[in-house]
Write a structure and sequence with these properties.
Growth Hormone, Chain: A; about 400 residues; 2 domains; 17 helices; globular
Length: about 400
């Protein structure tokens, strides 16, 4: 692994900075990956209604929608190391607040503020990685980032298994992990890029400028949210046992992890737009095949692995293209636009899939996911073939 990373990032200084940023976001992701479901499970155990639990789950998406458009202005005005440091400290403070005040209204406020801080952290970190990565290895570097972050998210629910949901120990463990992410952040001092340049620094302007890239981020968010929230329900309604349905999400997570180095390598060797469309095409075939393979205990596994890899892969490719095309304030606006899409699509996908399943039985989820993929492919065709851009 060391020699692979050394070949990707030959300059020792840039290697230290990039690995530090990836470490920060991964350690942070390890903690929030089990804080979010932990809060939902605590509310369930205490007898709160599904409506309130669902509203709590929407809070981070709402925070992302509100915060993301402001980040291009924020990132132009503040040192990015201090900005990331501040976001992490705010998260730490909110965890302490949730421990000190066992009150649902305080938890709602804390989750919103954590969503704001998390949005700043992710958008700034991804922008930072893209800004200093070399274009010849950009795809592999972003593939390494996606792989590492996906792995931490895949591991994080195990903390709930070992720690349970009662008491404050899970919050304390999360606090410790988030605090640990401050250590590699210290290694980035003096390496902050300048985000003050560029002609476009507004999210809406970037969406108009690069709709295909924003559409790819929206598609990934929609499909991922649909899979996480509704695939287990779809599986059970299709006759799969509860245990196997839960395992499906793990298999998809494994697929998203193992595919990223391969997709990142391809992104450095072939046309990146065509690779994004290929990922969407693979997603389309995989989703359309689910009704026919969902009850087969052998064929369904590779299909889910491929689906997970393609879904995460299209985001990796979109990030790579964005870093190839944009710099400075434009790049910050692009990552902020991705944050908006994550919030919007993460919020509407479960509702859209749920309505579709009510109208067309369990296969309504497949219909909703297919429509989203086809919409992206149509958008890509119009942009790349009709307008030649």
């Amino acid at each position: 692994m060391y020699y692979y990373i050394r070949d990707l990032i030959p300059d020792p200084f840039n290697r230290r900075v990039l690995l530090s940023i990836i470490a920060v976001i991964s350690v942070y992701g390890l903690s929030i990956g089990f804080i979010y479901p932990l809060v939902s499970l605590k509310m369930e155990v205490r007898g709160y209604t599904p409506f309130l639990i669902g509203m709590m789950g929407m809070i981070p998406f709402i925070a992302s929608i509100i915060t993301s458009p402001l980040i291009p202005l924020i990132i132009r005005s503040f040192n990015v190391t201090r900005l990331v440091f501040t976001a992490i400290c705010i998260d730490l403070a909110m965890i302490l607040l949730m421990v000190a005040f066992d009150d649902i209204s305080v938890w709602f406020v804390s989750r919103f503020v954590m969503g704001v801080a998390g949005t700043i952290l992710f958008v700034v970190s991804e922008t930072w990685i893209n800004e200093i990565a070399e274009d010849r290895t950009r795809g592999r570097i972003l593939g390494l980032y996606t792989l590492t972050f996906s792995a931490t998210l895949g591991i994080s629910p195990l903390f709930i298994v070992f720690l349970g949901v009662e008491g404050n120990l899970p919050f304390i463990v999360a606090f410790v992990f988030i605090a640990l992410s401050l250590i590699p952040l210290q290694w980035t001092r003096g390496s902050e890029p300048d985000f003050s340049g560029g002609r476009v620094s507004h999210v809406l302007k970037f969406i108009v400028l690069a709709p295909t890239l924003v559409g790819a981020a929206a598609l990934m968010s929609f499909e991922e949210a649909s899979i996480i929230t509704l695939l287990p329900v779809y599986s059970i309604k299709s006759g799969v046992s509860t245990e196997w349905s839960a395992m499906f999400l793990t298999v998809i997570a494994i697929g998203s992890m193992i595919a990223q180095p391969f997709i990142g390598s391809l992104a450095d060797r072939i046309n990146r737009y065509y690779l994004a469309f290929a990922c969407a095409g693979v997603m389309l075939i995989s989703v359309m095949s689910l009704p026919f393979v969902i009850n087969t205990k052998i064929i369904v596994w590779p299909i889910l692995i491929i689906l997970g890899g393609a879904t995460a892969g299209i985001y990796t490719v979109a990030l790579t293209i964005m870093g190839q095309r944009f710099r400075g304030a434009q790049l910050a606006a692009g990552n902020a636009a991705f944050g908006v899409m994550w919030g919007v699509c993460g919020a509407i996908a479960p509702a859209t899939g749920g309505i579709a399943m009510t109208v067309w039985n369990e296969n309504g989820l497949i219909v909703a996911m297919v429509v989203a993929i086809v919409a992206f492919l149509v958008l890509g065709f119009v942009r790349r073939v009709v307008t030649k851009s």
